[in-house]
Description:
By secondary structure, the chain is an alpha+beta fold. Helix content is 55%, strand content 18%. The chain has helices at 2-22, 55-63, 178-213, 216-236, 238-243, 254-274, 280-306, 312-342, 346-369, 384-460, 469-490, 495-511, 532-553, 590-603; strands at 30-32, 37-38, 44-49, 68-70, 74-78, 83-92, 98-104, 111-118, 121-128, 144-150, 155-163, 169-177, 518-524, 557-564, 568-575, 606-611, 617-624. Strands 1, 3, 4, 6, 8, 9 and 11 form a seven-stranded mixed beta sheet that branches. Strands 2, 5, 7, 10 and 12 form a five-stranded antiparallel beta sheet that branches. Strands 13-14-15-17-16 form a five-stranded mixed beta sheet, covered by helices on one side. Strand 13 (518-524), helix 13 and strand 14 form a beta-alpha-beta unit.
Amino acid sequence: MSRFFRRLLRWALWVGAFGRLAAQPGYPPVVVGEGPDFDLAGRVHYLTDWGEMTPRQALQRLQTGGFAVSQRRVIDLGYGAPNCWVYLRIQNATARRRHLIFSISHENINLLRQYRVVGSGAERLVSTGDHLPVTTRPLDHRHYAFPLLLEPGETQAYLFFANKRRDFLFIPMQLTERARFEAQERLNYALHGGFSGVLLFVVVFSAALWLRFREALYGTFSLYVLCVGLSMLASSGLGLEYVWGHWPRFNDHTRSWFTLLWEALLLRFTRQLLGASAPRPTLLALRGAEWGHYLLLLPFVGFYALNTLPDGGTMRALSACIETFRYGSLVLLVYACLQGVRRGNAASGYFLGATSFFLFITLLSGLGRLGVLALPVFFGPVNLGAVAFVVEIALLSFGLIIRYYALHQQRNRLEQELAHSRQEARERVIQAEEDERRRIARDLHDDLGNLLAAIRFALERVPDPPPGVDEARRMLMQATRNVRAISHNLMPSEFERFGLAGVLSESVRKLDGLHGTRFQLVQAGTPQRLELSRELVVFRMISELLTNVVRHAQAQSAFVQLVYRPDCLCVMVEDDGRGLAAEPPATGGGIGLQNVSSRAQYLGARLVAESRVGQGTTVVIEVPYNPMPAPDGPTPQ
């Protein structure tokens, strides 16, 4: 019984001492007034813990003055102790019930517990962390938000335990009205949603440009934006909340993985942008730095696979080596861009200006992680880093759009030049053909025709023609007529007088009944004359088609239609013969149809060929009255 009374007395003395200590000015409470936000500077106390301290032991240290005072609303232990105890006392100085939210906006805390101080002990309320599902948090939220309820005049004390294994420990805190907190977070979620939508659009648009031009620069930029966006999701807590929530342990490495990846892709993007404008050693250095980033991923992949991390000293040394290599690579990137500027590469200067703000924020954030600089809470990677990245993406996207427009214009110009060159080549070929036709027609008429006429006159002067001379004379007269017809077909002399319709009518009349095929010419509309050279090309096309009908179609009838429309001359050649295989005129159907297709392109005409085996062939040619740029090819159906 005496032992029981001694323990009871010791407990009463401890409670009294704690009550007196809690009321001392050294541990002033956070006074909740009528405003929506409450200042935590100088009102939050913390204790670094290198071991496995219990809540009771932490309260004993609080009693002996072992807690330090945080003069800011952020506790930054860097790569120091893995554990931290935070003591907070809140007093409701108003006459109404207050609904408050105490939030810790650093998402990468492995274990976070909330205790309510009751007498000499602590009652655990919440146990959560980034190694646990989001559902373990008091509010389903990307941050650690703890709802508090204070009655009028009530004072409550809370103890928080934070653990971050072998990594830097950073605890930014805020105490605000619940309604204001929820309104701010609705706005933040909307901004993050818009930010993610913009990033997704940039990723898809850059990927589309890569598919359109097959240029690796756009594909690299798409992957770069994707990795930076995932890194931002990891830093903001949205990744754990929405993306990899079923693999909480993955959260330990996401920021390191995606940071190394986007930096490697940024180096690749720089190398592709510079091209040949940078010296070869600089390009090789950029490639080496890029692959160095890929190699630095291997330790983190191994840690994840083995579900372990090295001790704090090793982790700090590894992080220092990685950060040193990263910043050396960024210095190399800036140097390479400056070399590109000196060599007249304007794109490298624009790229350097677009990324400078983001690189500067990345540098300061990394120095803050190493504990070299003490940065204010608003300078965290989630805030200014996101703003800097948005600025960079906006500028780089604008630059890529300008580049796309320039490439599109250049492509169109090259296509026009190529089409013009092809048109000139067709003109030269057709002109050479016409010149050769004129020469052959002239030689046939002047040389062979005169020779045949001389032979005919010589035979007529034979006094007593032997048998067979009359037959030879008739054959000679037929040969003379054939030479005259061939010469006429090669270069019709009536074109200037009668035009296309007149010459074509005569040709159809001569073909009618030949080889058992009936030919008929039909005209519709008000006749309009084309340029003489263009009418001659149209005549060659129709003659080629009619020759194909005579030689290959085995048709009983064929029709040629000339329809004069307001904007073009429509030529249709149709037969009821055996038809052709369904091949485009430009690639199949024989040399004749290929010549027709080539001439149609020269005229800027539209060529449509329809043919079925056993059901005949129809060829339609629409020739504009005014010359137009030649299309890429015919339109077979």
